[in-house]
Amino acid sequence: MKTETESRPLPNGFELTELNPDFLRDPHPVLDRLRQEAPRHIHRHAHFPDAPTGLYLTRMDDVRAILSDATYQRDPRSTPPGSLARAFAPASVMIDGPHGNLLYLDGAQHRRVRSVMSRAFTPRSIQAKRAEIEALAAEMLARLAEKPEFDFIAEYAAPFPIYVIARMLGLPDEDMAQFRQWSEDLIFVFNPLRTPDQDAHQKAAFAGLEDYFARAIEARRNQPTDDLLSGIVHGEADAGGKLIDNEISTLLLLLLLAGNLTTADVFGNGLLALLEHPEEWAALKSDPSLSAIAPEEFLRFGPPVAIAARYVPEDREILGCPVKHGAAVVLSLIGANRDPETFDDPHAFRIRRGRRDHVAFGGGVHACPGAPLARLEIEVTLNLLARHYPALRLTAPATRDRPTLGFVGLSRLMIALN
Ligand code: HEM
């Protein structure tokens, strides 16, 4: 006879996304259950009956095994009609010609764009910006400290990464307000429940940024400078040749889409965890040098990217399960980061853990190239908070009600610095 737990149906499809209010509030009870009862969960989407049945993986070892296998696909154009890859692909990546959206490219096409970006956007070029990033963070926090309370998400976590990447790209200060507005409006694209007004804003942001980037690319082509944008425009790909305009502007949009909401979310998730664990905040205040390793626990405990998806290149057996060509293998990054086989007491938040072997940044050929920048932004912020704002505290319960598919973050986090 089956126990009650065994007979409860396992969640599937959108139930395992932020469109499910319970999952949005706290996905871990469900992910823990899947990891224990069905770590290689047969995954179906009722809304996509033609899509081949896929897998939903929650164990760290399984997630790593798929991430490190470059034979899995990301390009929706290489999957058969009816696949989830096609259903979820942005229109801009379904074109016949080349596009520069690394997330949706495989093999040689991926290496071509990634090699140009990797040469321009190196850990060294990021570290070279440390003093500038510190100065920007200090200035923003000092201004916010004058307020009795403020929303950390809207006033720091969201704009700070936008300003940082804008400066790295070499955009002039006078364009910053407009650039910030567009960058923030882009994010509505991830919200399938966006209002008509938000939809209009996201469309206008894409159009505005494309036009803005077209002009900036042209200017750098005529007159190279020493910024990231020039590095991308003039960079040579591994196999030779330079990126064309469409590839460059898609890549730039991706830097904003992949870098801004993610960093903002990890700031929010991590700061909330820190303030909800007063002993951890006290430890950081008494030893601010812990800010060098604390970002790893922010990323492990509160990763902003919920899942990574890979598509199966031909009928094959995966981890003992037969799976069809074009099926989606969904890797739960938030689930893997709480795997008790990998992390001792995984639901505990401990800033001294210092474990870099989480999968918040994915892995394999698509591993996040922005990781050094995100780590640096979190580190300098924590260092400043610990040194200068010991009275930092929550002033209201945090709000987690944002149904952005695949991204886990707060919509509001009210705090006071003094
Ligand atoms: C805490 C912040 C961040 C997190 C947690 C994060 C997470 C991720 C993850 C999980 C992937 C891989 C997705 C997949 O394999 O399907 C990824 C890819 C990517 N990220 Fe990040 N990211 C962050 C910040 C950034 C920043 C700051 C930038 C750049 C400014 C950036 C640029 C990219 C790009 C371009 C890719 C695509 C790489 C490829 O497909 O080859 N990310 N990121």
**SSE ordering:** HHHEEHHHHHEHHHHHHHHEEEEHHEE
Largest sheet: 4 strands, mixed
Instruction: Assign the CATH class.
Output: Mainly Alpha
How many structural domains? 1
Oligomer: single chain
Computed structural class = alpha+beta
User: Radius of gyration, Cα only, in angstroms?
Assistant: 21 Å
In DSSP terms, counting alpha (H) and pi (I) runs of 4 or more, how many helices?
Answer: 18
Number of strands: 9
Per CATH, what is the topology? Cytochrome p450
Low-confidence stretches: 1-5
Q: Please, what is the average pLDDT?
A: 94
Give the neighbour order of strands across the main sheet.
1-2-7-4
Shape: globular
What this model shows, in words?
This protein has 418 residues and is α+β, with helices and mostly antiparallel strands. It has a single domain (4-416), classed as Orthogonal Bundle (Cytochrome p450). The protein has helices spanning 4-7, 21-25, 28-37, 60-67, 84-88, 107-120, 123-127, 130-144, 152-157, 159-169, 176-186, 196-222, 228-234, 245-276, 278-286, 294-301, 333-336, 371-388; strands at 40-43, 54-57, 150-151, 307-311, 316-318, 321-323, 328-332, 393-394, 414-416. Strands 1-2-7-4 form a 4-stranded mixed β-sheet, with helices on both faces. A 3-stranded antiparallel β-sheet has the order 3-9-8. The protein is globular, with a radius of gyration of 21 Å. Protoporphyrin IX containing FE binds at residues 102-103, 114, 165, 254-255, 258-259, 262-263, 266, 303-305, 308, 360-362, 366, 368-370, 373-374. Protoporphyrin IX containing FE (HEM) is lined by residues 102-103, 114, 165, 254-255, 258-259, 262-263, 266, 303-305, 308, 360-362, 366, 368-370, 373-374.
